[in-house]
Amino acid sequence: MVDKKTGQVSVGLGYSSRQRLVGQARLAETNFRGKGQGLNLLWEQGNGDAVGGGASYELGFYEPWMDKRHTSLSLTAFNKITYRFNSGVFNSSTFADDQTYNERHKAERRQ
């Protein structure tokens, strides 16, 4: 049997007139410690003055076999804002009805 690569690293940078310089880095491992565990880290940096700006992160861990019954565990800790918008193309009701869908999430660590 040939081992395959289980880790991933990605880095991205972008520029816009609204957010200026933005960046993202992601690390993921799907066979952490050789036990099928998953580990991922995501970091994003935007302009603090723009919508959704500032730094955000996400850290996740997955344990596929906690006991003999194959109970699994997935944990995620994050501090990020997610915006989703849905409306007609160019504000036209031709492609979608006039209903608008907006969603915003932000979770912060509390002590």
Q: Could you walk me through the main structural features you see in this protein, from its secondary elements to its overall organization?
A:
The chain is an all-beta fold and 111 residues long. Helix content is 0%, strand content 54%. It contains no helices and seven strands. It has strands at 7-16, 20-32, 37-45, 55-63, 73-79, 81-86, 101-106. The protein has a five-stranded antiparallel beta sheet with strand order 1-2-3-4-5, with no helix packed on it. A two-stranded antiparallel sheet has the order 6-7. Strand 2 and strand 3 (37-45) form a beta hairpin. The protein is elongated.
What's the helix and strand layout?
Blueprint: E1 7-16, E2 20-32, E3 37-45, E4 55-63, E5 73-79, E6 81-86, E7 101-106
Antiparallel strand pairs: 1-2, 2-3, 3-4, 4-5, 6-7
